[in-house]
């Protein structure tokens, strides 16, 4: 079976970020930093590591800081050069010209709608979707692990993780089939099932490798859970027609769409850093004493 390589990734970044107000009143939630890099930067770096060549951002009003972040910062570069400072960190955040595209999702109609907005740039080839507020820490990164499995299996692949039973109503939930190590066959998908009705606690985490057919399905996809056009509902239509697997990634996920998860991510990343880790650890130990 010839499997087409994944070259493009869609980053839906049009969401309002109301859970982080007032921090996100004038700043995109994807620009919230974990220590010193914005969430969206970690997601883009993860995509680059996985071999993605084109980044497609589905943005909305008030999100221009994301475009600036991946652009050249002339003023900073000029001033820092004049002061003899290294430009390495700035340069790492520049995306190759032509390797980035932005489309506007004019109304927040849901994740499925956001992906559909990118249809002309995605074209007729497999693509990845990364939700930046699922902050994934692993070696190799989550998307790389998925791409490696996808190259063997083809079809559609989602990141899957067991969540506590009382949280399944916040996720896309999988009806699991055969399990083989980290891989689970996906037999069904339901978006945000009401409490007590979830088919399992194996849930969809915000990393996807999808075949272009999902976009055809999205064209006519009606509203689902929460009155939004759901990617999960469109993916469910492909089950049976194309291979569909969930990969339980080896690593840690932090839900940075949630305040506790976001603070946890900052603590974990800070403690793991060679530069600030020791002093943060000393502080935390002292604080907890
Ligand atoms: C989205 C998806 C959901 C998935 C979740 C993972 O939901 O719709 O299927 O489980 O991301 O984070 P959201 O968190 O945007 O409500």
Describe this protein with a few key phrases.
Spore Coat Polysaccharide Biosynthesis Protein SpsA, Chain A; 9-stranded mixed sheet; 289 residues; binds 1-O-phosphono-alpha-D-glucopyranose; two-stranded antiparallel sheet
Would you give an account of this structure?
The chain is an alpha/beta fold. It is built from eleven helices and 13 strands. A nine-stranded mixed β-sheet has the order 5-4-1-6-11-8-12-10-9, with helices on both faces. A two-stranded antiparallel ribbon has the order 2-3. The protein has a two-stranded antiparallel sheet with strand order 7-13. The longest helix has 14 residues. The model has no long low-confidence stretch (mean pLDDT 95).
Summarize the structure.
This protein has 289 residues and is an alpha/beta fold. The chain has 11 helices and 13 strands.
Summarize the topology.
Elements: E1 8-12, E2 33-34, E3 37-38, H1 39-49, E4 54-59, H2 64-69, H3 74-82, H4 88-92, E5 100-104, H5 111-117, H6 119-122, E6 127-130, E7 134-137, H7 142-153, E8 156-162, E9 172-180, E10 183-191, E11 202-210, H8 213-219, H9 231-236, E12 244-247, E13 252-255, H10 259-272, H11 277-288
Parallel strand pairs: 1-4, 1-6, 4-5, 8-12
Antiparallel strand pairs: 2-3, 6-11, 7-13, 8-11, 9-10, 10-12
Helix pairs in contact: 10-11
The chain binds 1-O-phosphono-alpha-D-glucopyranose.
């Amino acid at each position: 079976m010839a499997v087409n390589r994944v070259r493009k990734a869609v980053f839906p970044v049009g969401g309002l970020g109301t859970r982080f107000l007032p921090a996100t009143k004038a700043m995109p939630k994807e620009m919230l930093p974990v220590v010193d890099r914005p969430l969206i930067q970690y997601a883009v770096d993860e995509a680059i590591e996985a071999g993605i060549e084109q980044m497609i951002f589905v943005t909305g009003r008030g999100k221009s800081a994301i475009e600036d972040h991946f652009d050249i910062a002339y003023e900073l570069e000029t001033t820092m050069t004049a002061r003899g400072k290294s430009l390495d960190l700035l340069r790492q955040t520049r995306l190759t010209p032509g390797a980035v595209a932005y489309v506007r999702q004019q109304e927040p109609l849901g994740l499925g709608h956001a992906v559909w907005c990118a249809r002309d740039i995605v074209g007729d080839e497999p693509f990845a979707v990364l939700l930046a507020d699922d902050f994934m820490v692993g070696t190799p990164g989550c998307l790389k692990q998925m791409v490696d499995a996808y190259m063997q299996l083809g079809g559609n692949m989602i990141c899957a993780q067991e969540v506590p039973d009382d949280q399944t109503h916040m996720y896309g939930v999988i009806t699991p089939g055969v399990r083989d190590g980290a891989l689970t066959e996906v037999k069904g998908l339901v978006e945000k099932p009401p409490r007590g009705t979830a088919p399992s606690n194996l849930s969809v985490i915000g990393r996807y490798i999808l075949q272009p057919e999902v976009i055809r399905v999205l064209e006519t996809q009606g509203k689902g859970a929460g009155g939004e056009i759901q990617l999960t509902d469109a993916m469910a239509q492909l089950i049976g027609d194309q291979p569909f697997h969930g990969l339980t990634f080896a690593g840690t996920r932090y839900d940075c769409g949630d305040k506790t998860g976001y603070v946890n991510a900052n603590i974990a990343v800070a403690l793991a850093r060679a530069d600030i880790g020791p002093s943060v650890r000393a502080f935390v130990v002292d604080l907890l004493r």
